[in-house]
Amino acid sequence: MPATLVLGGARSGKSAHAEGLLPADAPVRYCATARRVPGDAEWDARIAAHVARRPGHWVTVEDPDLVTELARPGTVMVDDLATWLTGVLDDARAWTAPVTPPQVGAAVNALVAAVAAATGRVVLVSAEVGLGVVPETRAGRLFRDELGALNAALAAVCDDVVLLVAGLPLRLK
Predict the structure, then answer these.
(1) Lowest CB count within 10 Å: 30, 38, 123, 159, which one?
(2) Where would I find the beta strands (DSSP E) of 53-121?
(3) DSSP-based three-state secondary structure for 133
């Protein structure tokens, strides 16, 4: 089945565009990768706003095991891969490690393989971070480099790739 990667910067409209690629009346498993932060009301409000704009019958799976979700039949939307990767880097304690821990690459490879093998419709949302300046911190460079590599690997296995700029979609593939 077709897989689409929707890329964009912060507030580019990438999530809304990706949601619009799927029929509102169809069943969708919406894999929301952002982890909740206890006591962060602003973050909870952002999550609630995302949930409120989706059709009520779409099933939201928070902090999902993406490989498992992608192996299931049906339509899957993943929003977004930057927050998923942040969780992978957190879990691997990569931010302060002298080199990227091998479990980061293993998680990325497993995700890319799961997208390539998915039998249902897949729509992926990810931040495009390759258009900015070189981050000042090691953690910032690690995130930019790892997300850039993840996006490139996913673009290679997706049928369609779209970049959102100022709310406008640019078809890349």
Answers:
(1) 38
(2) 59-62, 75-79
(3) coil
Neighbour-count burial for 61-87, b at 16+ CB within 10 Å, e otherwise: beebebeebbeeeebbbbbbbbbbbbe
Q: Which CATH architecture has domain 3-171?
A: 3-Layer(aba) Sandwich (3.40)
Q: How far, in Å, CA of 156 to CA of 158, rounded?
A: 6
For 115-136, write each residue's pLDDT tens digit.
Answer: 999 999 999 999 999 887 888 9
Annotation says 57 is catalytic: no
- Rounded CA separation 67/89 (Å): 17
Element (H, E) at 154: helix 138-157
Taking the complete model, does pTM exceed 0.90, yes or no? yes
Residue 170: strand, helix, or coil: strand
6-10, 31-35, 138-142, 159-163: which has the highest mean pLDDT? 159-163
Which member of 16, 50, 74, 144 is catalytic? 50
Residues in the chain: 173
pLDDT tens-place string over residues 106-116: 999 999 999 99
**CB burial readout 36-48, b (16+ within 10 A) else e:** eeeeeeeeeeebe
User: Can you read off the two tokens belonging to residue 60?
Assistant: 């939201």
